[in-house]
Design goal:
The protein has two domains: 186 residues, no CATH class; 119 residues, CBS-domain (Roll). It contains 13 helices and 13 strands. With 393 residues, it is of the alpha/beta class. A hairpin with a 2-residue loop joins β2 and β3. The strands form four sheets. The protein has a five-stranded mixed sheet with strand order 1-7-6-3-2, covered by helices on one side. A three-stranded mixed sheet has the order 8-9-10.
Length: 393
């Protein structure tokens, strides 16, 4: 399963919703940062499992074959995701990275193309890249002796017994079949598949963003459940796992839409922390010990930091002091984040938290007319809003 994800700009949601916490950077491919998900550690184990025969031991020829299959699948998925990422870049949208899983991958885009046709093209680019590989394999097979019989052998479910494909023929046949499966499987109109994202883009204008999301996530569940049954019926655990993946991500996307809607309808005052006089302020000249006492007295997770002219310059977080400061006597300045954003009280919480995430800061300072300080909004409090019952609309 392949996923092109537009990362939700809500604090911590890229981590909470996408579940991609641990991965390893393998480099940049055509300028796109590319990572391997930690679950790739199970691939060698799976290869050895399939290559081992009880009573006979390890079949190293079989292990080499399964390694070749794994490399081919990795390549096909990488080409699919590069299709998304490179077309998005051509349309003026940066791809943050590509992350590859053993059974799929994702191209993470911080924004969507502004034109509908460009958005559809970005989502269609992955399947089109796989169709291109399938066409190349089809041409190569046709050029082989008995090429038409070879194509029938790999594409017809019943197969045939007229010939026995050589190793090269098998590699070409796998390239043809798997890329067709990746292309047309991903064009199913179900979230998070590319077909579901294309359908949502097409429905967004006539139905609205919320309704179009509900449609494709519902289709994700409705299509995913029969695919789970089919996977068990055919004895295909990969199909069943992929279908469960579709169902889970559809539910997560529905929840993500609910979270954004809730934040958009919420004003900052719902989570506003009001400073009680000068006592909650931290100055860069103070010691770590004095600031720790202020944290205990306030109960706040984050405190605003001011310079000698009583101008706010950023925030300091209590966990940073607890984890990094060695002594109460040292200055607190090195542990302060000298950056913050401001927002008016009438701005909705979704817009505020999106800007907090973009700036990568602890929170926002809410200022009223004439720059009057009203209070603070911290990401910890926003997450409290998101933890309310998500099924209540």
């Amino acid at each position: 399963m392949n996923v092109t994800t537009t990362v939700a700009r809500i604090p911590n949601l890229h981590k909470v919703l996408s579940g991609i916490s641990y991965s390893w950077r393998i480099g940049k491919i055509f300028g796109v940062p590319t990572d391997l998900h930690w679950t790739f550690v199970f691939v060698p184990t799976a290869i050895l499992y399939f290559a081992y025969t009880p009573g006979y031991g390890m079949n190293w020829q079989s292990a080499a074959w399964w390694s070749t299959i794994a490399l081919l699948l990795f390549t096909f998925i990488l080409v699919h995701e590069l299709g998304h990422a490179l077309v998005a870049r051509d349309r003026g949208v940066r791809a943050d990275r590509i992350i590859l899983f053993p059974l799929g991958g994702g191209a993470y885009l911080p924004d969507q193309p502004k034109q509908l046709w460009a958005e559809v093209l970005v989502y269609a680019a992955g399947p089109l890249a796989n169709i291109f590989l399938a066409i190349l394999a089809w041409i190569a097979l046709l050029l082989r002796p008995d090429g038409e019989l070879l194509i029938a052998y790999f594409l017809r479910l019943s197969g045939n017994i007229v010939l026995r494909p050589a190793i090269l023929d098998q590699i070409l046949g796998i390239t043809l079949g798997v890329n067709l499966l990746l292309a047309f499987g991903n064009l199913l109109p179900a979230y998070p598949l590319d077909g579901g994202r294309i359908l949502r883009a097409l429905l967004r204008k006539p139905l609205g963003a919320r309704t179009s999301t509900i449609v494709v996530t519902a289709l994700g569940v409705l299509i995913g459940i029969p695919l789970v049954w089919l996977g068990f019926k055919l004895g295909d655990p990969l199909l069943a796992c992929g279908a469960v993946f579709i169902i889970l991500l559809s539910g997560m996307e529905y929840r993500n839409g609910w979270q954004r809607r809730r934040l958009a309808k919420t004003a900052p005052k719902a989570v506003l922390r009001v400073s009680e006089g000068e006592g909650w302020r931290v100055f860069t000249s103070e010691t770590v010990g004095a600031v720790r006492q202020r944290f205990r007295a306030s109960g706040w997770p984050v405190l605003p930091v001011f310079n000698q002219w009583n101008e706010q310059i950023g925030f300091v977080e209590t966990s940073v002091l607890e984890e990094e400061a060695d002594s109460d006597e040292e200055a607190v300045a090195p542990y302060c984040e000298a950056e913050f954003i401001t927002a008016p009280p009438e701005e909705d919480l979704l817009s505020v938290t999106e800007r907090i995430v973009t700036a990568n800061v602890y929170g926002a300072t809410i200022l009223g007319k004439g720059g009057k300080l009203i209070g603070y909004v911290f990401t910890e409090d926003v997450m409290g809003v998101l933890k309310r019952r998500w099924w209540v609309r």
